């Protein structure tokens, strides 16, 4: 039997030193309460729980989303900053409206993050749809096209971009090099509208209102919510800025259109494959917003109601400013760049999200101080009437159609000769606000 080993003097010293170290660590840890955020005494476990976790979970998604909506097992983004955040304290209650934003994988990373930190910041919930399922800035992007009929996707050049995106092993920008992505995205976009509406209703069937917009559309929510107070979601509303295809009216998608609970219910409730019934027809048409209107009218007899200029396809620097539009309220603006979305949101903050925002308010904030008597190499979008000499140069048909040919004054007859002649012609006309001279054309405008 082996006798027990006696510890050497060196081992005793090491053990004693280690014991003192452990005792000191315990005493120190008990005093870590001094660094806790709330100033109270806490131990290491409390301190650990007060810090963010650096694990495998999607931390950004966790911080910004509430638990899943009770009406669905998946779907939209619910934020927890809408009412408690002081920045959103005066933001209206939008809990009865679901924003549905359409984008594409080729543009999502350039547009969605900026929307999240500005225009969508105070919303309690919203949804994103695209042509590929992915996460952007921690938010779910739904694939609106995964349920398009397989036979429509097969051997259809409209879906070249869709298939290439699915196979891309790196970032989309790299995979899209040497391709005409703009045209491809446009060809693909028209298949989205009906499908994303059907998916939205399946995921979120209980909202009073559904607002469909593009990722470069800005929504003025205080004005929007005051407007909706005047409307009953139990009525069949489909409202937008009306455009036409072959004399058939539809709500322009970029401007945004909103539909009531009654309309969505009549379109989709108790039905399956509504969007699939129109997949084949979409291949022959130009646009998804037109197809949404056509399908809705055919399926339900509900037609679009025009709300221009309140629902608008322009933005502060391209809106027409004149008497007819001056005092009109505005709810949506389209083709807004990331910078412009940020600037409009800052303006809303300056206004403390007050109601209403009118077109004249945008003029005073974004246009008035930037007006100049003249600018070189600048297109001010004047295009109401053209003055030109059709025999002196070749002009496009649309330019010739806008040319004034009869009852011209002497100043109007000379307007096409130079910039100064164009200016004099404009100044002679009471209704002329501005003018533009280029390529032998004097163009005047009745609005700014």
Automatic annotation (TrEMBL):
Region (Disordered): 58-89
Coiled-coil segments on the chain, per record: none
Superkingdom, natural source: Eukaryota
Name of this protein: Glycoprotein-N-acetylgalactosamine 3-beta-galactosyltransferase 1
Assigned protein family: Belongs to the glycosyltransferase 31 family. Beta3-Gal-T subfamily.
Keywords from the UniProt entry: Membrane, Signal-anchor, Transmembrane, Transmembrane helix
Residue spans crossing the bilayer: 12-32
UniProt keyword Transmembrane helix present: yes
Species for this entry: Tolypocladium ophioglossoides (strain CBS 100239)
